[in-house]
Design brief:
Blueprint (H helix, E strand, L loop, with lengths): L1 H7 L1 H4 L6 H23 L16 H20 L32 H20 L3 H4 L19 H33 L13
Helix pairs in contact: 3-5, 3-7, 4-5, 4-7
Length: 202
């Protein structure tokens, strides 16, 4: 199955790097792909980016979740910051509430506001990967003992970085799929006689 999926999209195989150069190439791929997705989002009315498609996270919420993933695995686990969170971080739904970890589902930041935060976090990942040595890649993190998520433990640096690549890779096709739905809604609402009801076109 993996071989067939890799054949269909050779970039997918790059998300399983084994050395520092491979991680740098993988992150470059991730950033370029997300640039295209964000460009599509900028073409939509801002309010549409807060709308859910088929009960999934909105586009804005997806970006907020990726900020949380970076704060958790890079800033907390790898860099050792016990409180890396921003108020716009959005954990995954199944995570229990943790003291000090934000979870404001009602926040409605603008796309530019979230992108400023996201670009900051992506630059952090880029720096960590850019400075990666084979010794660092093969090492384990120092446990962060303060409450938060992930739980205090020592984690393989390689697996933390692969987790971030996995999050970035798998959330983007969902975001693209949802942008397809939002673009269809926008087209329907622009048709003569359209009522513009929030759920129209879903």
């Amino acid at each position: 199955m993996n071989a067939e999926l890799d054949r269909r999209d050779p970039k997918r195989a790059k998300m399983r790097p084994t050395d520092g150069a491979g991680f740098r190439e993988a992150w470059h791929v991730v950033e370029r792909l997300w640039d295209g997705t964000v460009a599509r989002a900028r073409g939509l009315e801002p309010e549409l980016l807060h709308e859910s498609v088929d009960g999934e996270r909105s586009f804005i919420e997806t970006l907020r979740h990726l900020v949380f993933a970076t704060d958790a695995w890079i800033r907390r686990v790898i860099l050792g910051d016990p409180k890396p969170w921003d108020s716009l971080d959005l954990p995954f739904d199944q995570m229990r509430d943790e003291s000090g970890v934000p979870r404001d589902r009602d926040a409605r930041p603008s796309l530019n506001e979230v992108l400023t935060l996201r670009q900051n976090r992506m630059a952090t990942v880029r720096q960590v990967i850019g400075e990666l040595t084979e010794k660092k890649l093969d090492s384990h993190t120092e446990p962060v003992t303060e409450p938060g998520w992930p739980e205090p433990a020592s984690y393989p640096v390689r697996e933390c970085l692969r987790w971030i690549l996995n999050e970035e890779w798998h959330h983007r096709p969902y975001a693209e799929r949802d942008l397809d739905g939002l673009e269809s809604r926008a087209a329907l609402r622009s048709e003569p006689g359209s009522s513009g009801a929030p759920g129209e076109g879903s």
